[in-house]
Amino acid sequence: MARSNRPIKILVALVALAIFGFLFVRSARDSRANPYTFERAQLQGWTVALEPASGPSSPLLVLTPPPEFLSGLFHQVFSRAMESLSTPAPGAIPLLLKGEFDRAFAGHVTPEALVAAARTAGLESTTPQPRCMAYRRVSNPDRTRQLYFVLFDAPPFERFREQVAGLLDAGAGGQVDYDPAALSPVLFIAASDTEFNHWLPMKADPAADCVAPITGN
Fold first, then answer.
1. What is the CA radius of gyration of the chain?
2. β-strand partners of 150
3. Where are the alpha helices (DSSP H) in 82-205?
4. Do the Cβ atoms of 183 and 4 come closer than 8 Å?
């Protein structure tokens, strides 16, 4: 009798584990979907800056927020995720990657001219507008990677990317290896590892990436 009951017990245990896993995943998904908040004053004082970039996917030119904007959102993500997460230091919206500069701009447009173009496009004078909290998850046999990021509605970002393409048309001659639409205005908030630049360049899809609204107080 004891042996005949053993398969039933194993089946019950497997069903219980499956239910627990389903409830855990649904709870995590529902938690991510709750609105995130920030202080509206944190949308002031964003600055354009050059960064020391080591690899092709490293940001060379960035728009840097007040540190309180990133840290406040990171703590909200961390408290909901219930797992270890890393945050970029420093965090910023990539405006141009080193690989883009090396392929298209080097020898034609200086980094300082790109800084000036970013400011002319209004990236320091226009308030950025967070659109949503976004999330990506990539799984392979070696590991699972997760990323939380804010997607912005940022016309000055798009204007800058388009305007510097015009600088290349005027100065480089011939075909230019640069796509203004290859990069979206995103700010990385948290990830399951520290390799943030491996997600770049990122073209965000609001329909697929956005998981929660983000509102200012």
1. 22
2. 133, 187
3. 98-100, 111-120, 155-171
4. no
Distance CA 108, CA 120 (A): 19
pLDDT tens track for 37-96? 999 999 999 999 999 988 999 999 999 999 999 999 999 999 999 889 999 988 999 999
Percent helix, strand, coil in the chain (nearest 5)?
45, 25, 30
pLDDT tens digit sequence for 94-125 = 999 999 999 999 998 999 999 999 999 999 99
Contacts of 141 (CB under 8 A, 6+ apart): none
Q: Name the residue ranges covered by the structural domains of the chain.
A: 38-216
Indicate the length of the chain as a whole number: 217
DSSP state of 141: S
Q: In terms of C-beta density within 10 A (0-12 exposed, 13-18 middle, 19 or more buried), how is residue 145 classed?
A: middle
* Terminal-to-terminal C-alpha distance of the chain: 64
